[in-house]
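Narrative progress, year one. The postdoctoral researcher (J.K.) led the effort to move from monomer predictions toward full complexes, under supervision of the PI. The following entry was the first complex the group processed end to end, covering 686 residues in total.
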Amino acid sequence: MATIKDVARDAGVSVATVSRVFNDSGLVSEDTRRTVLDVAAKLNYWPNGVARSLITSRTHALGVLLPDLAGEFFSEVIRGIDLAARARGLHLLVSSSHADTRELVSALRSLRGRIDGLIVMAPDVDAPSAIRASAGDFPIVLVDPGYGVEEFDTVSIANHEGAQAVVRHLLSLGHRRVATVTGPLSNIDAEQRLAGYHAAMRAAGGEIASDLVIHGDFSEASGRAAGAAIAAMQPRPTAVFAANDYMAAGVMAALGEAGVRVPQDVAVAGFDDIPIARYLTPPLTTVHVGLLELGERAVSRLVEIQSGRDSAVPQHDVLSTTLVVRRSCGAPSGEPLMGKARS
Amino acid sequence: MATIKDVARDAGVSVATVSRVFNDSGLVSEDTRRTVLDVAAKLNYWPNGVARSLITSRTHALGVLLPDLAGEFFSEVIRGIDLAARARGLHLLVSSSHADTRELVSALRSLRGRIDGLIVMAPDVDAPSAIRASAGDFPIVLVDPGYGVEEFDTVSIANHEGAQAVVRHLLSLGHRRVATVTGPLSNIDAEQRLAGYHAAMRAAGGEIASDLVIHGDFSEASGRAAGAAIAAMQPRPTAVFAANDYMAAGVMAALGEAGVRVPQDVAVAGFDDIPIARYLTPPLTTVHVGLLELGERAVSRLVEIQSGRDSAVPQHDVLSTTLVVRRSCGAPSGEPLMGKARS
DNA sequence: GTGCCGCGCGTAATCGTTTACATCGCGAGC
DNA sequence: GCTCGCGATGTAAACGATTACGCGCGGCAC
């Protein structure tokens, strides 16, 4: 592969001039400029990004650490990040499936010097301190972290409000016996969504009972199990709030198999508004989370920090949610059937 | 951030020794080894990846160029790549949403020197030559490219066989009037799947008629439109093969709204077996494509080429498909309802 | 005692750029 | 005619690592 020296030699100029041509740093005559560009094209030359990064200490790449890539939740988040990064001419160095904190630390290390900033989605509670300890000197934004992470910039989801809104909606439709299927207990989203459920139930006179809280793990399978349990309960709840859409899908499938009709016999609602939610039968009432925007905000915050503006104080951005009423809860739908198709 | 020099100074050794410690290249006494490691830990030192890459010309990163990140198809492919890369200690530099070939070329350039190999999913027919012209000196694997790309290593999907198998299955259930909804004409998958449909129809005595071929664009919306059209046809086809699962979902939704029952009135089948396929109502009969394996094979081929083995001749790997019978086609299902849940 | 071997380590070149600083030539101003 | 200023270009020092090569030294064989 041709280097800057080859181009300089063939064009009869110094490497500095070639460099200046490729960096638009003016002060090079139109003639030499053209010559250099011609020679470069002939040699298929393009500046080596790594060498460039070494001297400028800018990589034009952002690191993205995710716990997983499966499912539409992560898929949408990373898509949002990609869109935002692309708009700013940044590359993405992704790394997922970090089972434990140790793996996360080793991933962090190998990113040293390769990225200008980092976006981390770390479900583990002890992750933040590990990150602080082993990260390089690049800025970091935590997406959807736990409580009380003061030291980092964060972007999170208004889980509590969203859950409250959807449960309040179910109560407003006349339901009193509203069950919930939770996510894994250690997960912060799950915890906050459960708290939102409790708050709404208390505030609006829902029935409070421990058997109405069914534990799941965010998977479709756990939703199915919960759905089967709900179908068999005596008396049966008249509504179910699942802490994410995948579990809601499982609940609906299990209810259907047990001969329980949705929404006539039991209303169902989910959380996240992943793309498939609208394609389920019946279309799922859920809480819309701007997953794309989550990524956009993380990237833009990172760029802000880098550019020096506003660097000192970590900011805590909370993404608000919107209730999306579809047919699964039995209320008149607020959304046209063909609307908002995401292709 | 501490550099190798800082560590060398504090540990009272030369930079070469520090380097040797971090590269396990033997020939360093246990005592100095320990000292160096201690000092490094104290200074939070870790070798700078960029500097390392510059001299070794190994980046331990793979580039991934995709047309898009949306939807479960791409999501699964990239997940497969990620899994395979992680298993080999490689990072992923992803870049998506390349509307045209020009954008692809500029992305390719900026990858120069930053990756050890490249995986490209380029739907455009003219892409391969553009890639060859502007790529660096790293190996390239094309995933699911068009016909006749002899110069590159490729991994593709057995579209023709898969489509033939599913259509043959519909015919074996007694259907004769089988419609198909195609993908965009320019897309190679769409073309091959349509060819497979035609081949099966001809071979097994299906009804051949041009109005049975309905054009779509792989989006759920186009599937809905096709479904509405099918519901209104006289006489109505008794089965539909949609060229991907998203369109099949749209077809089923539109049929349902038109009061046409699936599978009693019309059998429906799709292609790809994306994760949501099993959660649709009824669960979708489709052609399973090992999307994860697609990624795995691309990565392993790249690694093979790098390691020098078997470098010369481009290989063309074809991933076979499997028919997955679920309830949407009315045949006895081959899959237990709870089976194969992907979490 | 001498020569040789090999371990442990240091010196310095190198990777491909960017960029501060030096240099050169040339027209303007006096 | 001499200096000054400035635009265009070259020289060389970084950036942070890896690694070929060389060197000192202790032990062993003769």
